[in-house]
Amino acid sequence: MEAITEGVKKMNVSESQKRNLIQVSNTKKPLFFYVNLAKRYMQQYNDVELSALGMAIATVVTVAEILKNNGFAVEKKIRTLTVDMRDEADARPVPKAKMEILLGKTEKFDELMAAEAEERGEAEEQN
User: Fold this and answer.
1) What is one cellular component GO term in this UniProt entry (predicted)?
2) Which domain holds residue 92?
3) pTM reported for the whole predicted model
4) Are 107 and 37 a contacting pair, CB within 8 Å?
5) What string of H, E and C letters represents the secondary structure of the chain?
6) Cys staple from 103: which of 9, 10, 61, 73, with CB 3.0 to 4.6 Å?
């Protein structure tokens, strides 16, 4: 167990393993899980990178649009690419579409988050 811990400590965090990266799935979590997680990441890091493969691209676009339309985020960068994926170690690579969207906070972000927190507080008091 200690060898594993030491190995993890020695690992370098590459550009692809950013702290503000959310890898979106269209089957594992509900849509608003990603919306709320992205808001938290923007609070902490000022921006968030949403990433998706294949069929999850529609979900990542929807999450980004919800954040933009509600005034929480602005687009900084959108990147599309194709990556080779393997189902098994010896299988042939299969090309998959990938999309990465970098979102940043709007000027009103903190104000909107405070208003949202206040609304939640009032709703809890009523219950």
Assistant:
1) nucleus
2) 16-108
3) 0.79
4) no
5) CHHHHHHHHHCCCCHHHCCCEEECCCCCCCHHHHHHHHHHHHHHHCEEEEEEEHHHHHHHHHHHHHHHHCCCEEEEEEEEEEEEECCCCCCCCEEEEEEEEEEEECCCHHHHHHHHHHHHHHHHHHC
6) 73
Q: Is residue 23 part of a domain?
A: yes
Quick: pLDDT tens for 79-126.
999 999 887 877 888 899 999 999 999 999 999 999 988 888 766 666
Question: Which of residues 7 and 41 earns the better pLDDT score?
Answer: 41
As beta bridge partners, residue 16 has none
Task: Check residue 47 and give its pLDDT.
Answer: 94
Q: Are 73 and 42 in contact (CB under 8 A)?
A: yes
Residue 53 covered by a domain: yes
**In whole angstroms, what is the distance from residue 50 CA to residue 100 CA?**
6
Evaluate whether 51 touches 22 at the Cβ level (below 8 Å). Answer: yes
Give which of 64, 66, 33, 61 is closest to 47, Cα–Cα: 64
Number of domains in the chain: 1
Give me the CATH number covering residue 94.
3.30.110.20
